[in-house]
Design brief:
alpha+beta, Nuclear Transport Factor 2, Chain: A, 5-stranded antiparallel β-sheet, 4 helices, globular
Length: about 150
Amino acid sequence: MRIFILFLSIAIFFIACETERQSPIDTVRANYAAMGNEDIAAYLETVTGARSAVAETLLSVFFEDYDVAYSIDSIELAGEIGNVAQVRTVVTSTDRGGPNKFHDNRMTATHKLRLERGKWRIFFSEVEKPEMLEQRKPEPEDTVIRHKTS
């Protein structure tokens, strides 16, 4: 009877762990959401390695200078083998009017993730050359045209 209870407990544990585990795509979505919300703590939950060591300082400076919105145009799981996965994204980044002007762009990236302690974390991202988008022009102000009369 004890063996049966032990086996049942182990089975329930593995089933519970499997249902709670995020997918690599969920991690990449959370990463972009953290960037858009300027949430450094949430961003750090999605990354690992050298990337996380410098992220807090770099993001603090970036968030002071820019306000950027991120829109995921497409996202796909390119592959998953064991504890390593790749997610390919196309993301449009647009200026929301921060202190400095951010150049709107669309970029394709391949994010490499590793499963660590039950969570997928990004350890490397390869970004293709961004496509610079046409900048939105401000609405023209009403103008008065005066004609010179002789």
